[in-house]
Amino acid sequence: MNNKPTTKTADIIIPIYIPDTKFDRLIGGLLTQTRLPGRIILMVTEKGEATAEALRARVEELTQAHPIPGSGRIEIIIRGLSEQDYDHGATRHLGSTYSDADYLIYMTQDACPADSHLLENLLLPFSDPDVTAVYARQLPDKTDGEIETYTHEFNYPPESRKKTKADIPTLGIKTYFCSNVCAAYRHDIYQELGGFVRHTIFNEDMLMAAAMINAGHAVYYAAEAKVYHSHQYTAKQQFKRNFDLGVSHRQYAEVFGTVKSESEGIRLVKNTARHLIRKNKLSELPKLFVHSACKYAGYLLGTHYDKLPKKMIKACSLCRHYWK
Q: Is 140:216 a contact under the CB 8 Å cutoff?
């Protein structure tokens, strides 16, 4: 891969819902990057006092606290939408319509840049013309337990990797893995392939990555581009999250049904158990098995969601707004 950094333009699109202190860290981190975006586009789902206007005032304070040196300038666009109009794919695609940049960078409000070189390292792989999507490494927070920390290491190893259609027989579903927690897309190819699916419960990022790979392009995992991002889900939340994952895999069986997926989850459980034993963290084994059982049960039920009553589906789903 050519190591010359790109000089093309890039905009950042972030869906926002009741932002907390991590959002402040995110914006502060983006304003102090070695490679600045042209625009930061905030798609705000308004609820109560968490309005676009309130966020505008908050962002103004953050930009004053982190002034850009020299003549540098970032345009910040804030657009509000109602809670019932939010959608994983449609909201992110709507954000893309406010951008004319060469690259679209998507992030979530709780992804905090690990250093000032995040955007520089995220865009660098595009010097390879085959690469049309790049996603960052997600690091655990210091408060994460041993299971969460190892899961991050499993899903986001320290080695970068370029993935193409030729990797499907060996990597299976991980060939399509890409995360909009922090990911960049070549704008022209994104548009050529129709953008994100407009109404999806989950996986808009993997569906786009799959479309790119099956069209002959490559997806790149950039381990040098790093964000802090993690969730400490309860067993119930794991069940609901994986129910939604199963729903997505069922709805897009033509994509996910053609690659092996469940074996990857089994490998994660086995490797995590071995890791806990090596670390003498035997007390965490029950949590691992309970959470893994909830994940699998949720996923399995989600893949049969179309046979369930609507009331049960809503009770099992983490994204209740999807079923409006």
A: no
Q: In the numeric block, which tokens belong to residue 294?
A: 């909830």
pLDDT in tens, 236-277: 999 999 999 999 999 999 998 877 666 778 889 999 999 999
- Quick one: which of 26, 177, 30, 37 has its CA closest to 99? 37
pTM (global) more than 0.90:
yes
Distances (CA, A) of 194 to 15, 106, 161, 175, 190: 20, 16, 26, 20, 6
Concatenated DSSP letters for 81-147?
EEGGG--HHHHHHHHHTT---SEEEEE-TT-EESSTTHHHHHHGGGGSTTEEEEEEEEEPPTT--HH
C-alpha 187, offset from chain centre: 17
End-to-end CA distance of the chain: 46
- Coil, helix or strand at residue 3: coil
Q: Kindly report the number of other CB atoms within 10 A of residue 95's CB atom.
A: 23
Instruction: Retrieve residue 119's tokens.
Output: 């955007």
pLDDT in tens, 59-112: 999 999 888 876 678 999 999 998 888 999 999 999 999 999 999 999 999 999
For residues 168 and 177, give the distance between their C-alpha atoms in angstroms, rounded to a whole number: 11
